[in-house]
Amino acid sequence: MRRDEIAAGLAEVDERITAACHAVGRDRSEVTLIAVTKTRPAGDVRILAELGVRDVGENRDQEAAPKARELAGLPLTWHFVGQLQTNKVRSVVGYADVIHSVDRLRLVEAISKEAVRQGREITCLLQVALDDDPGRGGARPADLLALADEVALAGGVRLGGVMAVAPLDEEPAKAFARLRDLAVALQEQHPRATMVSAGMSADLAEAIAYGATHVRVGTALLGRRKPFVR
Ligand SMILES: *Cc1c(COP(=O)(O)O)cnc(C)c1O
Question: Source organism's superkingdom (predicted)?
Fold first, then answer.
């Protein structure tokens, strides 16, 4: 049964997170699991919620918006983790509690304006391009602190911290070490911006070793996704 599969995946991921925490002397409670449910049916999200998961992540508005609407009664925090175009901001602000992919001033302005209009407060994580190439999303490390100041000044948004995806051509640990340094620098200016969203199915232990507070896990929880067809 699907529920048993998901329960087994969840137990396994939870064990991996616990082991990764203990390996570096961190408490398990310092790390939140975000179940990345992109491409999965709403039924999977419902099962996750029944099993006690409270944080779910999605990366495409077209898919996330109807799912969030269908599951609006569940006690879930919705994380938007994909690249975000300004023309989708109105929709995303309607259901997302946390946006992990804030990487440019225009996006900050759009989210702020829409959050104020809808009377919502959106937690914004600044996505960093750890390879210094903003092509796949993420701000350059050198631009991070200026962007943080903009979020801190804007209405309707709260500066939560940083987010990154490990580059494909580098050991994740090395990349996450740079993310940790950036997170420390950010917190010197903005002490409450303590969230570090890093680590996926393949590299969650490395991310936890370098201070991740939120890991975003899909495959290891829910199985391989079908190849994505647009
Ligand atoms: C899909 C996705 C994840 C989860 O990846 P898995 O390898 O399936 O765990 C995490 N973060 C982002 C931004 C994603 O798009």
Answer: Bacteria
